[in-house]
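The following record pairs a protein chain with its ligand, cytidine-5'-diphosphate.
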Amino acid sequence: SLVTTAIWLDCVFGCVCHREVIDKVKERYSQPWKKQEDNYQKFRSQLNGKCNGFDKAIITQANTPVGKELRFNGEKKRILKVTPEIFSIFAKEHPFSNKTLNTCAVVGNGGILTNSSCGNIIDSAQFIIRCNLPPLGNGYEKHVGIKTDLVTANPSILVEKYGALNGRRRPFVEGLRTYGNSLLLLPAFSYGHNTPVSLRAVFTIEDFKSSIRPVFFNPEYLQNLSIFWRSQGLKEARLSTGIIMASLALELCANVNLYGFWPFSNHPHSHHALTNHYYDDRKPKTKFHTMPAEFDFLLQLHSQGVLRLHLGDC
Ligand code: CDP
């Protein structure tokens, strides 16, 4: 099929070759998609039992009291004992609605979104999750939408785009405007070097009275999630932001739709070459995570009717 050829092109041109994915895409994406409630409930309760993202994904004053030792998930030997000062910037309670959301859109940053016209359908979801402060205006809106309820920010973005917030901070605050009053999710306690820059982000947001609401990933949740995925057979050093957010969405929403997840260099239908992101062509750090292996698992969930991957134009 066309999808098979797209992945073969990756192999031929020396990118990551995952032959096992090739046949699976062929088989699984060509079937009409239907939600399979039993499979969804089963997967969701596994995730909930092992990770409990609903209560634990985000650090709150309820799940992380003063004196608790936070163990950094990326640096096992590093521990931070919660001081009253740090505690005071934690969210008071977890920010998710107690009712299961109906439809969620998790938007990955893949170049497959370029010219996809998926903006309206993405924006029609009840809860929209985006990764790594992606650009939304400037003509991207039609293809990726404009609404955001939760956006992640890897500290490497803060370092590269905003000088680690060591100098002028206004450009950062202005850059946040497109995300309105969404949640800004920071992995402040994953690696030691993430903490100071994440705290500067929070203080900047407060000092400039930005309406975005900063919160922190709970390293315990991230650790449990990586154990969960390893137990499913996903062997990689680090989970990508996208699979983390898709996993969280499966706990929060009844219908999870993924857009912008396609870690291959040619379009699945029209075969044309794609950039890695819809807004630039920076290559992933394959040293750390292997998105094609994750994609294989997401495709499996798609064919089981647990979540829905969108690979075509809208
Ligand atoms: O933070 P990270 O480098 O993992 O991700 P990113 O490049 O900012 O993109 C966000 C997410 O979109 C990734 O974590 C992947 O899950 C997904 N993605 C994809 O599936 N295919 C691509 N070509 C690019 C990103």
